[in-house]
Amino acid sequence: MKYHPGWRFRLGIKVAAAITLFFALAFALVTPLIVQTITRQQKQSLINQTKSFTVLATQPIGEAFLQYRDSGTNILAEQITTIKNLYSVVTAIRVYDIQAAYQFSTDQQQPDLSVTAAATFEPIFTYDQRGFLRQVIYPFIQKNGVHRYTVTYDVSPAAIQATLDTLENNIIIFSVLTLVLADVLFVSLVQYLLVRPLKRMSGLAAAIRAGQYDASVSLKRNDEIGDLGMALNAMAATLKADIAALMQAEKLKSEFLIISSHNLRTPLTVIAGYLDLLGSLPLDKTAKGYLTTIQEHTSELNQLTNDMLTVAELEGADKPKLKTEVVNLTDFMQSLVPDTQARLSKKSQELVMELKRYLQTAVWNIIDNAAKFTAEKGVIKLSLQQDQQNVRLSVRDNGIGIPPAEVAQLFTKFHRGTSIMQYEYEGVGLGLYMTKLMVELMGGRIEVSSTVGQGSNFTIVLPKGSPPPAL
After folding, report:
1. Is there a contact between 359 and 391 (Cβ–Cβ < 8 Å)?
2. CATH number of the domain encompassing residue 112
3. Strand, coil or helix: what is 381?
4. 224 vs 275: CA distance, rounded Å
5. DSSP at 329
6. Of 315, 344, 377, which marks where a domain is finished?
7. Could you report the per-residue pLDDT of 229-256, keeping only the tens digit for each?
8. How distant, in Å, are the alpha carbons of 127, 159, 460 from that of 403?
9. What are the residues whose beta carbons fall under 8 Å from the beta carbon of 321, sequence distance 6 or more?
10. Of 23, 41, 75, 365, whose CB neighbour count within 10 A is largest?
């Protein structure tokens, strides 16, 4: 799976967003049901309260009417108005006799009332189309059982609706506040129980990636998170032991290279001396052929010895210091042509130099490697390009190519490829490894692209105009 850099949202933000979305959806689904249920109940409650008010208010209104209807109209109006003001939903109170004749009104209006309604012994409730109580007609029965008057109450549906709207707004505000509080508490809990431990373990993984194998994480948790922390600590300890073992193995390899190369150099020098001595003697043609073959293989062994010493030097703790100097890469590349052509002529291969507007160079080990894996009469192309930051030297061949699974191993020590059973190649697998060490010492890198059966392209990328890194 490829990692695509760019905008990245942290786990805590994702968790907070997910929890907030969950609560928002729950709020959107549940709140309307809650509001509908409560407002319906409150609506019925307000209607019942209005009915109860009319029950309680009718008797004192009737008695006040009997007492002050003839002698104290102002007092009557004051008392009935006081009763009306006790309940804001009622907008007007009127008194009729049982013949439907108007007697009194708090708003001075005199709407008609049917005789049947005026003479009723049971309360009459009138509703509008929305089910809101609009009017109550309630009979006033004296204590002696005489029914002489009927009281009507005008009820305001708008007042009831306003009360319900206020209730609905309060429910929504309370729900939103509850949502925010629950979201904050839940996010904080998840952050504490899950995100913070994961961030600490992520920090441990980053420390391990950076080579800090002594790092560890302490989680006093007896759950899956605690198990994961213990597993990471165990992995770090195992990696530390494995890295130490690998470093020891690499150290032994380097020591082996140094010892082997030194032990080989002395006998090779003696052999080369005697071969030179034999070459000065008069020998027949057959013997001279044998002598030439021995000298060639001795030279190859001597080159291998030098490569082993170079690798050991580059791998050592005291790496060689590079002195920065200005090099004309075009001239340097051209100086390689005679030696390169001599190497390629053995297989009738052709070296093409591209000298356009860009500087170009070559590295002998990569050219030698290209020649090794390119068939007779093949083509090896050496080119050089540059931009504002880097110089890019490319060696392209039309050889056998490299399988994708093998590319990552090209620059490891003693790697010779998986095709060695099919082809016989010279060398022990130190050339590319040594080249990689040299390029890295100069602050550069090597890029490889290859297609099996079509060839390979090795590119050395070196920083331009800056000295190598301090060592």
Report:
1. yes
2. 3.30.450.20
3. strand
4. 73
5. H
6. 315
7. 777 777 777 777 777 787 777 777 766 7
8. 88, 85, 20
9. 471
10. 365
